[in-house]
Amino acid sequence: MTPLSDAEPTPVETAAGRTDESLPVDARSRARPTMRHVATLAGVGVKTVSRVINGEPNVSAATIERVMRAARSLDYEPDLHAGNLRRADGRTRTLGLLVGSVDNPFAGAVHRAVEDAALARGVAVFASSLDDDPEREQAAVSAFLRRRVDGLILTTASEDQAYLAPELRRGTPVVFVDRQPAGVTSDSVVSDNTAGAALATRHLISHGHRRLAYLGDRHDIRTAQERRRGFLDELGRAGIATGDAPVVEGLHDEETARLATLALFDADEPPTAIFSAQNLVTIGVIRALRELDRHLDVALVGFDDVPLGDLLVPGVTVVAQDPHAIGRLAAERVFARLDGDESPAERIIVPTRLVERGSGELPPRVSAR
Amino acid sequence: MTPLSDAEPTPVETAAGRTDESLPVDARSRARPTMRHVATLAGVGVKTVSRVINGEPNVSAATIERVMRAARSLDYEPDLHAGNLRRADGRTRTLGLLVGSVDNPFAGAVHRAVEDAALARGVAVFASSLDDDPEREQAAVSAFLRRRVDGLILTTASEDQAYLAPELRRGTPVVFVDRQPAGVTSDSVVSDNTAGAALATRHLISHGHRRLAYLGDRHDIRTAQERRRGFLDELGRAGIATGDAPVVEGLHDEETARLATLALFDADEPPTAIFSAQNLVTIGVIRALRELDRHLDVALVGFDDVPLGDLLVPGVTVVAQDPHAIGRLAAERVFARLDGDESPAERIIVPTRLVERGSGELPPRVSAR
DNA sequence: CTGAAAGCGCTAACAG
DNA sequence: CTGTTAGCGCTTTCAG
Fold it and tell me: Residue range B63-89: average pLDDT?
């Protein structure tokens, strides 16, 4: 008879919740079993259990079987963090992902791609929303570091990430997504914002527009700056005076964008075409144009895709980013660093793609004010 | 002079990466500082550092200041997991969230609500996508348990969650969201699927429809069963023969739903109204109706909201769930359990709400086949 | 108010 | 092939 059979969990429960009695094998089901419990039950030493659990060599098949049975019967789950305390590589097999908000299609796609890459390596992913708040960013990074994540992937909300320098020096891989780092040097994966914005602008110009408006996010967000620059540069190349092109910044949600659009058409010389530099802004613009019943005569190209954009009337023409590729590349970069890649910080630029669906192909029509 | 000032990080680096030299205070910036390093640098014992870091009482203001300075100068971040090894409550201040896919509006909203509730308590959130795969569910639960999460919130993908029983017995709070548990008893937070489906169906019937079709998810998903039941029950109440109402199941994405809809209108006696029981199915149906140019004469009510549903033409009438409330309530339940709530498992039902936008109010029109 | 010693669950480094 | 001892970074316990 193996030691296993007569050590089955007894239905006996002590009165108090505490396990005060010192049974060699703790069969009371409420206590979380440790490696020692498994070892005693299997009649082997703890190190042997450790070998079996970690799939290390030099254990006889019979012993493996005994240990596995004991572990299963106790419903044993090893404590990853306890192991990491002593383990040579000290890896927690955990990643931290910081995004604008997990409740946002772009972030969701990045997250999913990161998760897929992580899953293949047995790595779990912490996610945290920052709402573009620099303080939340620092707090979240600290919270993850205390949990000893192996690496960080972040859409930064702060203007300067110098606070990450000590951690970077310790070798923790940090990959910036969507926005470039400032104050530190590290890998980043971003869309080609300037080129994408220029592409959108050129598209509108090629359809005959000369009076184009830019509606975008806060100017202190680098990504927004780049898109604005792409827009203005392209106007310049087309010989359109950039001075009087309406440029509205500081928009960060549907409502502010909607109101800004309404104001734009309430002023003199409204534009015949709009470039909206962010997906929530695009949606706000669409709402406003609908309200004004101008959605079929004001051209619109948005940066970043909009859910169900192909089902709207007109379809929303966008410069689409590839959030899934961004997430995948970021995760690959983190893992490459963890695998020892010491090459200089890389800056991966993911191309954007113009998706013509109707709104961007509308010809200019003089406002009937 | 305090011990701090002459122990500033030296720019000297050893040749090898390894910290082989035994300096009492490790000033080499590459090594991760421990509480001991902070203690030595501040000239106090480790327990005092522990007290300061954890905000425990009985430390003089001067000592607190010294320790804080030392910790900051070393950029020290305490190791939460090492502490938990010995700590009485053993809480990792970490939660595991399992959903269909983090790349999904419903899951995103649940996630965000859980995160908000968790943030207020200093709890970090692991997220994992299951893709309705029972094996992924078990693997993800195990991965989280090994990382010793304090609680689990899950949209189950498996038919039976009996495998969770031992963990439940150990007192780990588990809250099911969106889908009820089977094989175990635990808290759950779900939408009122049957009532919501009945509401949608009644709405269509009240607009004169007698030939309604049901398009839904896999029949082995309880949620889908409940919605189907709500639909059929309501037909029965209205005296409509349920026998020949088209009921298409097993749809799980836009494409399968689109094809199923096309097939429906290719057959005899197509419906004048459709109830689609899931958001991706709703989108597939909309695409098909557009293709057939029937979107303005076939009524449609979807279960669960669709992004930008109000901007489509016609607007998409839906029975909206409240994913944010579901996530918030689930998190509150987990924290109540962690705070010692021992009351019987609760089943929280979140009401749904009919949102009329046009597609559900279309009158029946005989097919011009 | 402070610190030394023991121990949490596990793995490294040796013995056998 | 297997077990023993020490120690990871921290908190507990207990003694100043």
Answer: 93
pLDDT confidence of A16, banded at 50, 70, 90?
A: very low
Residues on chain B touching A286 (C-beta within 8 angstroms)? 311
C-beta of residue B127 within 8 angstroms of C-beta of residue B114: no
Nucleotide nearest to A38 (CA to C1'): C9
Q: Do A122 and B143 touch (CB under 8 A)?
A: yes
Tell me how close the Cα of B222 comes to any Cα of chain A, in angstroms. Answer: 25
Measure the CA–CA gap between A93 and A191, rounded to whole angstroms.
28
Residues A251 and A153 grouped into a single domain: no
Inter-chain CB proximity A128 and B146 less than 8 Å? no
Q: Does residue A142 share a domain with residue A111?
A: yes
- Range of lowest pLDDT (A26-30, A37-41, B32-36, B121-125): A26-30
Domain-embedded: residue A369? no
What's the whole-model pTM score? Answer: 0.89
The pLDDT tens digits of the residues spanning A35-56 come to 999 999 999 989 999 999 998 8
Q: Which member of B75, B144, B170 has the closest CB to residue A30?
A: B170
CB B210 within 8 A of CB B364: yes
D5 C1' – B10 CA distance, angstroms?
Answer: 36
β-strands B299-303, B247-248: how paired?
unpaired
Chain A residues within 8 A of B32 when measuring between CB atoms? 170
Q: Is residue B368 part of a domain?
A: no
Write out chain B residues lying below 8 Å of A122, CB-based.
Answer: 143
pLDDT in tens, B250-289: 998 999 999 999 999 998 889 999 999 999 999 999 999 9
Give the structural domain span for B128: 94-191+323-350
Q: Is B216 exposed, middle or buried (0-12, 13-18, 19+ CB in 10 A)?
A: buried
Give, in order, the Cα–Cα distances in Å from A77 to each of A70, A145, B130: 12, 24, 20
CB pair distance less than 8 Å for A103 and B104: no
